[in-house]
Design a protein that fits this description.
Structural class: mainly beta
Distance between the termini: 40 Å
Shape: elongated
Number of helices: 0
């Protein structure tokens, strides 16, 4: 069994920062591309950023300069650093990864449970 567990969400004032973490654990063998999505109730889930196994990172154009994605391959963790947060960044943030477990089974787009980020005064 593999799991993706997000952490680091919470309430922050506009202009503040948060760093989300997502750890892949359990019987994980290899983690490939890792992604962050976000979803506002009533809207579709949108891709925020992704980082490949080789470290190539991409952030949604409208979020560049404020959001940064990175990963720690030794611990199978992906981070999302969010700075200069705005009220419109309020959403549930989901981690997503392509990975294999120790039996060799491949899991494309495996999802975490999500973490709430609220930007408000």
């Amino acid at each position: 069994q593999v799991t993706l567990v997000e952490s680091g969400g919470g309430l922050v004032q506009p202009g503040g920062s948060l760093r989300l973490s997502c750890a892949a654990s359990g019987s994980v063998r290899t983690v490939y591309t890792m992604r962050w999505y976000r979803q506002v109730p009533g809207n579709q889930r949108e891709l925020v950023a992704h980082v490949t196994a080789g470290g190539s990172a991409n952030v949604k154009d409208s979020l560049q300069g404020r959001f940064t994605i990175s990963r720690d391959d030794l611990q199978n963790i992906v981070y999302l650093q969010m700075d200069s947060l705005k009220s419109e960044d309020t959403a549930v943030y989901y981690c997503n990864a392509d990975l294999t477990d120790r039996s060799g089974r491949y899991y494309p787009e495996y999802w975490g449970q999500g973490t709430q980020v609220t930007v408000s005064t």
